[in-house]
Amino acid sequence: MTKNKEKEAIFKEISPSEFFYRNRELAGFTNPVRALYSAVRELVENSLDACELAGILPDIYLKIGLLDGYKDKPDPRPYLLKIVDNGPGIDPKFVPNSFGKIFYGSKYLLKQSRGMFGMGGKMAILYGQITTNRPVKVYTSTDGKIAYNYQIMIDIKENKPVILEKSTSDAQGKRGTSVELCLEGDYQRAYPKIKEYLTQTSLVSPYANIFFVDAEDRVTVYERSTNLMPKSPTETKPHPYGVDFETLRRLVKESSQENLMNFLSKNFHRVGSRIAKKFLEKYNFDPKRDPKKLSDEEILGLSKALHSYGEFLQPDASCLSPLGEEILKAGIQRNLNPEFLAIAIREPSAYLGFPFVVEVALAYGGEKIPKGISLYRFANKIPLLYDESSDVSWKVIKELDLSRYNVRPDMALAFIVHICSIKVPYKTLGKEFIADIPEIEREIRNGIRDVLRKLNQYLSRKRFMEKTKRKANIYAKYLPLIAKFSTELAQKKKLPRYKKLIGWRVDGDNEGKN
Q: Cα–Cα distance between 19 and 354 in angstroms, integer?
């Protein structure tokens, strides 16, 4: 009789590269359509971030081209994607890991940037590698004198770069970075989204020049409409409301302070000695206690106390880079050219200790805005084009009674909502829609109400002016006849001075002439 033997479970470890190789849909690389769009988006955002953080007005060149031998074949097929920027360039010692190692980059600081996970660009490279087996080509120069050229592939199993080729050349006075990769894409179906993405990027980044050459060699130029740039964000410290046990334990381990008083005032945002002392006294912590001698239980108690204390100052917005009214206005006027525009910049707020700012605009009328309610969503200057119905902004708009503001469903109305934060609460790694965090939802709702009230005032004035004009037209039509009849009835030769009663120009004469 044969005994059934249970199979033993096999345990193994996989690298971050292999995880996303197996689950690339988590990062937006679901199919050839989304993959091509996502690759364009990630590389454009990296270039814009690099330029803005260096205070350089961005000049971005983007090209999508077909590979030789594939021009007569149907989609999906391999495409060449190239992006060139005029940013500060990348130090050559960081290039291999920056383009060949998942979760390596400059995004892991407490300050606002378009990227959050340090993996978007690498996912594009990884997707290109597994669909075309071609390396990414990187050209970069930090001084405009020497250019460093790399050809890199990713060792998926080990999550590390494989340098196939490395050389230097004359940069010819040009500073910046160029990235060229091949990937399988469905261009015909992805093109509308790519075009919409670039159009909306030009709306929210009107200080950038973007040159786009598509796969049919058509050139689209999005010229900058302002030289104003948003202020660069500065790195900040964690806020007490945003730290958990693990974060606090790491801070304790890495700190050089010898007592809890200095530990709190040196490691946390907007916590000074006075507030630190009041906090420690309230929760019976010894201010002179060496933080490194705290047990795990004491660190857990400290983290809970930090969350419970209600007198910490809210985070400030120094780590954020909101657009501001002038930049937002320039982008909307250039792209939508509305009849009426209202903008509301909300005061900085916070959720879970993470600061954020909500900027809301409302554009009404004009030839470029379609009839009905449109919504343009942005997070850290990134256009969000997919999953609109799941986004918190759309939820807020649907819940509002727009009729209270004299808004009809057939009006040409566009809402623009921009959320900037050091931690945008995306619901997916693909960064397509925002979770309905109560604090963020409240600020969006109040911002939308602000611009709707301004629209209501404008519509009321417009209706009043139209009513006044209709009356004036009636007066202009009948007063001359009445004046003539009255003159004849009174047997006078001179007409009465009736034109000033109309209050506007009649027959080309000013009212003061009659």
A: 29
Q: What is the fold, at CATH topology level, of the domain defined by 240-308?
A: Helicase, Ruva Protein; domain 3 (1.10.8)
Residues 287 and 257 sit within 8 Å (Cβ to Cβ) = no
Q: Residues 6 or more apart from 214 whose CB is under 8 A from it?
A: 64, 191, 220
C-alpha dist (Å) from residue 254 to 258, 267, 363, 388, 507: 12, 10, 50, 42, 83
Residue 176: what are its φ and ψ, rounded to 5°? 140, -165
**Residue 322: cis peptide before it, omega within 30 degrees of 0:** no
pTM equals 0.84
For the chain, which residues make up each domain, given as ranges?
16-222, 240-308, 325-459, 470-513
Residue 104 has a CB neighbour count (10 Å cut-off) of 20
User: Which structure tokens are listed for 478?
Assistant: 């009948």
Question: What is the C-alpha separation between 293 and 252, in angstroms, rounded?
Answer: 9
Torsion sign (Cα): 161, 165, 170, 172: negative
Alpha carbons within 13 A on the beta-carbon side of 72: 1
Burial class of residue 347 in the structure, from the number of CB atoms within 10 Å of its CB (0-12 exposed, 13-18 middle, 19+ buried)? exposed
Fold of 325-459: Ribosomal Protein S5; domain 2 (3.30.230)
372/367 Cα distance (integer angstroms):
13
SS3 percent helix, strand, coil of the chain, rounded to 5, is 40, 20, 40
pLDDT tens track for 376-416: 999 999 999 988 888 999 999 999 999 999 999 899 999 99
- pLDDT (tens digit per residue) in 236-251: 888 898 888 998 999 9
